[in-house]
Amino acid sequence: QVQLVESGGGSVQTGGSLRLSCAYSGRTFVFTKMGWFRQAPGKEREFVAAITWNYDTTRYADSVKGRFTISRNRSKNTVYLQMNSLKPEDTAVYYCATGPGDFGSSYDYWGQGTQVTVSS
């Protein structure tokens, strides 16, 4: 099994920063990538960023490029999402997820989510 635990959410004002963490454990070695997704009230879940296990290749949604950075600390089994220049439209529950294959493939395990609220 795989366990993913997010932390680091909170409330900030526009322009502020937060760093989310996703601690992973279990059989994560069978997967090839870790991603961050978010879901705002009344909206569908959307992709935010992802990183591959092998080469730390990254991919971002256009809405967060230049503001968010995904990274990984292998020794701590943790993936981070550094979020800068936050906007009210970034308000959502943020989830980390992992799965096999490339960026376009499935994400099979999900964390419980952490709330991010950005006020204007």
Number of strands: 11
Largest sheet: 7 strands, mixed
- Structural class from helices and strands? mainly beta
- Mean pLDDT rating: 95
| Percentage of residues in strands | over 45%
Q: Span between N and C termini?
A: 40 Å
Rough outline:
globular
Radius of gyration: 13 Å
Name the helix and strand elements from N-terminus to C-terminus, one letter apiece.
Answer: EEEEEEEEEEE
Helix proportion range:
under 10%
Number of helices, where a helix is a run of at least 4 consecutive DSSP H or I residues: 0
Q: Low-confidence segments, ≥5 residues, pLDDT <50?
A: none
Fold and architecture overview:
The protein has strands at about 1-5, 10-15, 20-25, 35-40, 45-50, 60, 70-75, 80-85, 90-100, 110, 115-120. It has about 120 residues and is mostly beta strands. The radius of gyration is 13 Å and the shape is globular. The relative contact order is 0.32. The mean pLDDT is about 95.
Helix-strand layout with pairing:
Blueprint: E1 2-7, E2 10-13, E3 18-26, E4 33-39, E5 46-52, E6 58-60, E7 68-73, E8 78-83, E9 92-99, E10 109-110, E11 114-119
Parallel strand pairs: 2-11
Antiparallel strand pairs: 1-3, 3-8, 4-5, 4-9, 5-6, 7-8, 9-10, 9-11
